[in-house]
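FIELD: query
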Amino acid sequence: MPLGASKAGLLGAAGSAGFSASGGTETTYTSGGVDYKVHSFTSTGNTNFVVSGRTDETVDILVVAGGGGGGASGYAGGGGGGGVRAIADVNISDQTYTITVGAGGSNNGGDGGNSVAIGYTANGGGGGGNLNVQGRTGGSGGGGGGNGSGGSGNEGSFSPLEGNNGGTGNQDGEGGGGGGGGGWGAAGGTGSDSGTSGIAGAGGGGNTNAYRTGSNVTYAGGGGGGANADGTTAAGAGGAGGGGAGHKNDNGNSTASVAGTANTGGGGGGGSDDGGKNGGSGIVVIRYAV
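FIELD: result
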C-alpha cells in the first residue's frame, strides 16, 4: 500500500454539510468508490488553505520539502531528496492555515527549503558536498563529495522516516565519484574510484503516494553524484521520484548534471566541473472525501 494510505473515505471523515475549503489548485477524483476533493499547492513560498463551516473535519495531507542542490566540483555529491510526511485523518478547524512550499536548494550544495502544512513540517533535502566535504543533513542527506561522508537523513527524527542518508564519496589521484543523495525510500549510493575509473553513487529512490490524483506518484528521489576520471567514468543516476543525474567528465565524453524535478522534492545532480544543479521544489497536497 502507498505510504500515507488513508481510511478517511471509509470513515466518512469529511464532506459534512456546511463544510467548505479553498486554496491551491482544486481538483476532484474518485477512487475505490469514494469521491475526493484535492487542494494542491505547487508555488514556492506561503499561501493559504481556508476552512469554513465546520470544526470537526479531517483531511489527508502530503507535505514534500524542496530537494537539496548538487555539489559543484571535485566529484561532488548529489543533493538529498526533500523530506516527506504523509499523514491520514488530520483534524482541521474553521480557520485559515498558512501553507509553505519549500524551494529546491541551489547548486553548489544548497539545502532545500522546508514545507509546512497544518502543523506538520517536512525538512528540506541536504545539499551535496564538494571534494573532501561531507554532504549536508536534511530530510534526506546530501551525498558526500570525493572522500566526504554522506549527510544524515530524517532531520526531524520522525517515524515513519521522512528520508534517508546520503552516500559516501571516494577519490584518489586519478579521479573519483561523489555519493548519491538520499531519497525518501532509500539511502544514496556510494561513489568509488578504481584506477582510472570514477564511478559515482546513484541517488536513493523515492516512495509513492496517491493523494493528489488517486494514482501513485513517486516523490523525493536523491540526486546522483558527479564523476571525473581519465578512463571509464560513470555519473550517478538520479533516484526515482525526480532526482537529477550527476555530471560525467571523462576525457571530453561528458554529460551535464540534471536538476531535480519541480514539485517532486527531487535532489539535484552533483557536478565534477559543471557546477551541479538545483534541487526540485516541493509540494503540499490536501485531500478529503466529499
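FIELD: remark
The helical segments are 8-11.
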